[in-house]
Design a protein that fits this description.
The protein has about 190 residues and is mainly beta. It has two helices and 14 strands, in the order αββαββββββββββββ. Helices cover about 10% and strands about 30% of the residues. A six-stranded antiparallel sheet has the order 3-4-5-14-9-12. The radius of gyration is 18 Å and the shape is globular.
Length: about 190
């Protein structure tokens, strides 16, 4: 959804499958691993459980973008950190929300290493200026979620915590855990 908007798309939608049992497609078929991107897991005799997809969707729809029908402005965002194969280590998507706050979605794609970043803005293609003021931080990573896959369909999360929330003081770096989704949002509107 973020890439679609960054490329000029006007609207994106998310559909999550209804609560269901986790199943595995037949070997050799697409998506033949456990889980099916559902928002909630149903296990007979237990409470319905929110899945990782649910938690990240909540981050995107409540903290990255502003709920409602206000106009958002999508900005080009990049990360200078590169892998040995010259691929970006972090993908970033920035929006100015209707309330004037800047929110940046950051994806650390490295499965093993945390990445440290600082947010900066350019004005008219000129020099970078650090984003000022404190930042509200929302993170979802293997520190909050771990999926245990079992061959007979008895898969479950053995760690299923909500996203981590914190505040980053002005000028401080942001540490992105391995394989994480982070939303960093200014506390005040930007100019």
């Amino acid at each position: 959804a973020a890439l679609l908007l960054a490329l000029g798309g006007e609207t994106s939608y998310l559909y999550g499958l209804e609560p269901d049992d986790v199943f595995q497609e037949a070997e050799g078929r697409p998506c033949n691993s456990w889980g099916n991107l559902m928002l909630f897991q149903f296990v007979e005799g237990q409470q319905v459980r929110p899945m990782a997809t649910y938690h990240v969707a909540q981050m995107l729809t409540k903290h990255w973008v502003q709920p409602g029908n206000g106009r958002h402005t999508v900005y080009a965002a990049t990360c200078d950190l590169r892998t040995a194969a010259d691929q970006p280590m972090v993908t970033a998507y920035a929006v100015r929300r209707p309330d004037g706050r800047l929110a940046v979605l950051l994806l650390n794609k490295d499965p093993r290493r945390p990445v440290t970043v600082r947010l900066a803005r350019t004005r008219g293609g000129r020099a970078q200026h650090p984003v000022t003021g404190p930042l509200s931080l929302f993170q979802f990573s293997p520190l909050q979620w771990n999926w245990v896959a079992h061959p007979r369909g008895e898969s479950y999360p053995d760690r299923a915590l909500p996203p981590y929330r914190s505040t980053v003081d002005e000028g401080r770096a942001i540490v992105l855990p391995p394989y994480s989704v982070t939303v960093a949002r200014t506390a005040e509107p930007i100019r």
